[in-house]
Amino acid sequence: MPIFPFLFLTATLLSGSAIAYFVGGATIVGFFSLDQTRYLAALPQRAMSQLDVFAFLAMPLFILTGELMNRGGVTEALIRFSLSMLGRFKGGMAHVNILTSVFFAGISGSATADAAALGNTLVPEMERQGYSRDYAAAITAASSIIGPIIPPSIILIFYGALLNTSVVALFAAGVVPGLLLAAVLMAVNAFMAHRYDHPGGKGSEIPPFWGSLVQALPALSLPVIILSGILFGVMTPAEAAGVASLAALAVGMFYGRLTLRDVQEALSRTVMLSGAVFIILVAVATFGYLTSVEQLPRKLAEMIGDVGLDATGYMIVLNLIFLAAGMVMDVKAAVALLGPLLIPPAIALGVDPVHMGILIGFNLTVGLLTPPLGGVLLILSTVVDIGYWRLVRACLPFLVVELILLGVLIYVPAISLTLPRYLGLIN
């Protein structure tokens, strides 16, 4: 009976098993309960064909780039450069926090990696300057989700490979929304700084601009290499990721902070994270095979037509689903599991797949900032040693404006699509 996969899924979820095991196991049970076991003979070939996508090659290389940069002393150089530009403003150190997240976004593409790195460095420094720990942790959490929006983004690589959408176009589409998110957060921080008299402004100790720029140039070169190489067609995302990982190694050696042991640890963690991701992809490919056998996308599209949802109505429902998924699921698993099932009906209703990819990425990353299981909140509450719900309360103003911005992105597709259209990446 069809209820058996759901019972198996519930049992494995409650047992604390990894997502790959409960998704894959429940899908196999589904084949048996739906009397579709004759299709299992083709499952290995089907699953491996889902992984044989050139875009996936970029993912482990971008993970390696982020690992090398986090260990190579880049954080201090970027913070000092950001402080030289923004330290003279009220609430300047919080502005620095946001700008550093923008720089990191062009390197790692991971919200959780940025939150962990900046939580260890910026939050103690903000406390030393007179910010409350609550506010310092909250602004770090809110700005860290810029990472998966501004390219390179592992979420967008996932989406592009699974939904057969140009990763280059997705990268171009993420630039303006990511910068707009940073601008909105800076506006909120400026309001908070004047209302609660945060540190900064006249009399603040500010590093010299040109000296800090020279020190930060090697780190700043990485986003330029990645973005210009991809957006102007010089390199594919995979080639850009390879060049970026070599450049990250060179930058770490330039700063004198990257040891052989650091490189070994970065490689080891990259292998571990990549393996975990590809196991999830195999499980999700198994689930996708079952949905195609049962023709679930077609049935879902028919159900949408019967209910009478137009493109806007379905988009709102879809965004709520992905926002909820981001609260409790790994973002890559959420894209892989829900994307192939729920997004084709939206495209059939006329939604641009590139625009849809940006919305999905934004949704899932906002979910990382949302209880009950927001991943960024969990990481920062541990790194910064602050109560989880205390951090949730401090993040609420930033979460509200990010949800408002999400609504704007839904109703104004041009924000996402203008740049890729200008570059000739989409029609």
UniProtKB/TrEMBL annotation:
It holds the Pfam family DctM. Belongs to the TRAP transporter large permease family. It is a multi-pass membrane protein. The keyword Coiled coil does not apply. Keywords: Cell inner membrane, Cell membrane, Membrane, Transmembrane, Transmembrane helix, Transport. InterPro entries: DctM (IPR010656), TRAP_DctM (IPR004681). This is TRAP transporter large permease protein. Residues 7-415 form the TRAP C4-dicarboxylate transport system permease DctM subunit domain. The lineage of its organism: Bacteria, Pseudomonadati, Pseudomonadota, Alphaproteobacteria, Rhodobacterales. The keyword Cell inner membrane applies. It is found in: Cell inner membrane. The chain crosses the membrane at residues 6-32, 53-74, 94-123, 135-162, 168-192, 213-234, 240-258, 270-291, 368-389, 396-419. The complex comprises the extracytoplasmic solute receptor protein and the two transmembrane proteins.
